Amino acid sequence: MVSTIIILGHTSLKIFDLVFAMSGPDNARTVVPGILVYTKGFRQNAFAQASAVATIVLLLVIIIIVPYLYVRLRDNT
To answer: Number of structural domains, the chain?
Structure first.
């Protein structure tokens, strides 16, 4: 279950190019972290908000992945 969550979370972070190519950056209904950072940073010139969103996403990924890796690597040694 945790492996599935990590893989899906990683995919949702990498989906920027697919969503950007299909809907464009100005589609307000399409909200994924990458598009949100792009629109905040480059379209609205709100670089502080864009970096805050990117930092929160990074922290969420760290909160999920680090304990998972700790448990997996601890069991293998």
So the answer is: 1
**End-to-end CA separation in angstroms for the chain:** 22
Query: Range of 6's domain?
Result: 2-76
Q: Which two tokens stand for residue 30?
A: 């399409």
Structure tokens at 70: 């700790």
Separation CA 27–CA 30 (nearest Å) = 6
Q: What is the pLDDT of residues 6-47, one digit of tens each?
A: 777 777 777 888 888 888 767 667 778 888 888 899 889 999
The pTM assigned to this predicted structure is 0.71
* Amino acid (1-letter code) at residue 10: H
Q: Are 75 and 68 in contact (CB under 8 A)?
A: no
